[in-house]
Design brief:
InterPro entries: P-loop_NTPase. This is Fis family transcriptional regulator. It comes from Candidatus Sulfurimonas marisnigri. Helix content is 51%, strand content 10%. Helix 1 packs parallel to helix 2, helix 10 packs across helix 11 and helix 11 packs across helix 12. The radius of gyration is 24 Å and the shape is elongated. It starts with 9 loop residues before the first helix and ends in a 5-residue tail after the last helix.
Length: 249
Amino acid sequence: MDASYIAASASSAQAFKTATLLKSLSVNSLITGELGVGKKSLAHYILPDAPILDASNFKELLVALDSVSEIVITNLENSPNINKIFDIVTSKNIRVIATAKSSYYNEVIDKLFSIKFDIPPLSQRLEDVQLLIKKFVKEASELFYTKEEFNMKHFQPDLSQNSNSLRRQVMISYLLQDIKDSELMDILENYLVDKLGSNSDYKNFLYLYEVPLIKAGLQRFKSQLQLSDKLGLNRNTLRKKISDNADYL
């Protein structure tokens, strides 16, 4: 199995099975799905030696189509002229594996692509998530030159952009899990240095301290009553702070 595509779930396994079949067929295919579901990985798996061009780079794509027998075209929905691509591909008999978002449709699509299949989002492929986390943790370990274990105790996977958001989250969480006080303060200093300048900056940026403190406290102590006691705050004061920071909680 291609190491860059995780196929533990039934839907992922079916998509990979279809991609494997396409390796042996000389047909054009369109792979659809949300950002970060693995469309590009499967397209590259089907045509490992073909150049990969983004449809939005139209001039570069046209140059490539003039000299190739097969090609991977990503983000087909961004093409300014799908009809021209169709004319060139059909006249030169170029094999195309393309990717696009699930909602994309153009009447040319049915003419150009013999096989179309969709990859579901990670929220529907939860069996894949844990394997992807392990993969990204390994990447983080190699990137940061450490062999630390990844603390999954309070980790809630961010699947908003599928593997893209999950990978970013794992990288940041891995880096921050053993961060020192001084390093954390350095991060905040770098964040704030160019943002300060008004007469109400203390009030405007207080949420950077209060929000993580409240969220961590509620996660650990489970109730506002216990948290107010641990923080040494009046319950009404804590409620007001929660209300003031409602956009972030």
